[in-house]
Amino acid sequence: MRNQVLGRIDFIEDLQKETSMTVTPLGRYENSMRLIITDGQLEIEWLYWPVGKRELEEVTYIGITIDDTNELTDYDGVFELPKEAIHLLTQCKITISDDF
Question: How confident is the model over 79-85, as a mean pLDDT?
């Protein structure tokens, strides 16, 4: 299993954990998002950790589905596609409709 990296962005942001019942602020986090292809599957690998505490790094994968015109048709793994993920996808020439 080998990853091909198509793009990357790094940023610092206040994060929150969302469930169907609650929203819990987590604080200020450093983030790195990479658009990758693994075994033919397109996904965003989202690494995040409290500022200055890389040893507490966590990862979330966002599955990305595009059509043959490079337009986003679906995603999986998060309730809402983060604005930074949208920026990364458009930076990688993936079209995103207003539905997302």
Answer: 92
Residue 3 pLDDT > 90, yes or no?
Answer: no
Dihedral (Cα; 25, 88, 7, 5), 10-degree rounding: 60
Is residue 54 domain-resident?
A: yes
Backbone phi and psi for residue 79, each to the nearest 5 degrees, phi listed first? -65, -45
| Average pLDDT of the chain to the nearest whole number | 93
Domain coverage including residue 14: 3-91
Q: Give, in order, the Cα–Cα distances in Å from 75 to each of 25, 30, 52, 63, 71.
A: 24, 23, 30, 5, 12
Question: How much is the pLDDT for 39?
Answer: 87
Q: How many domains does the chain have?
A: 1
